[in-house]
Design a protein that fits this description.
The chain has 95 residues and is mainly α. It is 83% helix and 0% strand.
Length: 95
C-alpha cells in the first residue's frame, strides 16, 4: 500500500492503480486499496469509476462517513459537470 501511495506522489498513477488492483484481487475487502483507486479516478475526473469504487466500499462498510461524503461530493461534481455541458451546448446553438 505504501508503494502505491509513493507512486501516486510521484505522479505514476498507472503504476499505483495496478498495485491497488492487485491488492483488491488478493484482499477484496481491503478498503484502503478501494479508497486509493477511487482517489485516482477522482483526480482524473473519471466520476463514474470513482463512484463505483466508493460504492464497493459502502457495500463492505455502510457507515464509512468519509466514503459517504466523497460519494455525495462526486455526485455533486457530476451534476455540475453535466449542467455546464448542457449550458455550453445550448449557448452554442444560440450563437
Amino acid at each position: 500500500m505504501l508503494n502505491a501511495k509513493a507512486l501516486e506522489n510521484l505522479d505514476q498513477e498507472d503504476e499505483a492503480k495496478q498495485i491497488y488492483n492487485d491488492l483488491i484481487k488478493k484482499h477484496p475487502e481491503y478498503l484502503d486499496a478501494h479508497k486509493g483507486i477511487a482517489t485516482l479516478y477522482l483526480k482524473k475526473k473519471q466520476f463514474e469509476e470513482a463512484l463505483e469504487s466508493y460504492q464497493k466500499i459502502l457495500e463492505v462498510e455502510k457507515n464509512d462517513h468519509e466514503t459517504i461524503a466523497q460519494f455525495s461530493w462526486i455526485q455533486f461534481l457530476k451534476l455540475k459537470q453535466n449542467r455546464t455541458y448542457s449550458e455550453e451546448k445550448t449557448s452554442n446553438i444560440l450563437i
